[in-house]
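Quick one: structure tokens for this chain, please?
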Amino acid sequence: MLLIEFNPRIIESKDWATIIFVVALTLLVIARTVFETRFNDYIRLLVSDKYTKIYRDSSHLWSGFNILVFLVNLVALSFFIQMLLAHFQHGSKNDWMLFTRIFTGLMVFILSKFLIEKIIAVTFGIEELIDEFNLQKVNFRTYIGVLLFPISALMYYSNYATNLLIIVIISILLLINLLTYLISLSNHQNLVISKLFYFILYLCALEITPYYFIYYLITKN
């Protein structure tokens, strides 16, 4: 007698990812509509310094515009990290719990780092320098997130991710981050020189050490 055994076919749903992508896109549309002039200057950030000159005051750090693009940045970066984990077979790209953990971890890391930076800046008396430095970092890093958003969506839905593509994307991200530091140092070189010792301590403690430990944890696990 022929026995036929039926195995359930498990199909991972992408509905949750589609909803998140749509929400992030809606946030970008809101930023484009409500802050039209600012958004137009913002998208030319890499080719023009107009945006950084107009919005260089630290009071803009927690503006509505920055909060909107920051959320888009978190979504794009979280999806990109999940794509990397899936590509190297350390997780599934359709695992919404994994995305939630990555998103939450990134948000806690960034906000905690910002709070510690604020405390150290006040302690060392370099609050003005660090506030402006953080504003420039936020500008460029959220800009990275906006650029990464369509790339993450394309990688998610097209199943197209090669080692070369990943290396190119990461190299571009690192280059833009390096550009952020160079521009910030150039714009505040007099203030940096006057507080050079404390600024070096700040860089070692909060711009190098945290990322080294993250790299160490990832490579060891």
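The radius of gyration is 20 Å.
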